[in-house]
Amino acid sequence: MQSNINPTAAVGSQVLGGPGPEQPLDLSGVGSRRLSEKIIAAVLFLAGALSIVTTVGIVVVLVSQAITFFVDVPILDFLTGTRWQPGSKNNPGFGVLPLVAGTLIIAGIAIVVALPLGLASAIYLSEYAPERVREILKPAIELLAGIPTIVYGYFALTFMTPQLLKPLIPAIGPLNGLSAAIAVGILIVPLIASLSEDAMRAVPRSLREGAYALGATKLEVASRVVLPAAFSGITAAVILAISVAIGETMIVSLASGAAPTRDGNPLDGMQTMTGAIVAAFSGEPSRGTPQYVSLFAIGLLLFVMTLTLNIVSQVIAGRFREVYE
Predict the structure, then answer these.
(1) Which domains does the chain have, with CATH numbers?
(2) In angstroms, rounded to a whole number, what is the distance separating the alpha carbons of residues 171 and 265?
(3) Are 122 and 203 in contact (CB under 8 A)?
(4) pLDDT tier for residue 316 given thresholds of 50, 70 and 90
(5) Count of CB atoms within 10 A of residue 72's CB?
């Protein structure tokens, strides 16, 4: 009597772990994985939608309250006025120009302080530092970003101004824009250094080796090969740092004072847009008053400024991005 079972197929089925001729495929695991994927996709979609809804809600609140303000104060007077005294009972002033000037001055000095320090740190980490040193130094630099900004503010107020700047510049006031700007610059150094270093390390090793083969030094490779190749990423990092400097609140509120600048002198006290919002809300303005709704107009202007910077960053990054294969 001959058997109908193929011994080779039976052995192969046992070795490969495949189902025998009479064992159906178990699809329950496939179904559960597909269900898990659908749940994860739904959760991720809800998270993305929530961020969009939050942004839209913020814009709606800012615009609605700002429109209420611009009914009483013309938008041209708000943007070009040179006197900011919303709390004055007899003759309130709602010219935002001194606040914008203070914001741009502090942000400008901050980026002058942070850009060379951040780029130098990025070049060292990317081109010069051994891997072991980089693993220690980069987290140490990024640790600066984790310090609360109010600590930077007290540092500028109680140490930087009296101990460092006063001996060098006797005419500097106790509350001044220079110390606040330097503190903001220190705050954004890790942002420029970390993002710029990431952009530099993304440059292919073959470009460096080609430059070295032509006799270039490390400095020449870093300045003439790596920096131009990583230009889009570095530019995006700088613009993002400027946005952070413009939106900084606690440092400028503590160190630069609460008086709008008169002549743009950073040795004197000056108030930024964020500082004006903090100062106004600390006095608890009455809801619905011009002083109250003017803060939403400042917030809307800040939103437009930072949004413009982000758009410029995206355009520059897309325009100069290099794609390597």
Answers:
(1) 99-320 (1.10.3720.10)
(2) 11
(3) no
(4) confident
(5) 10
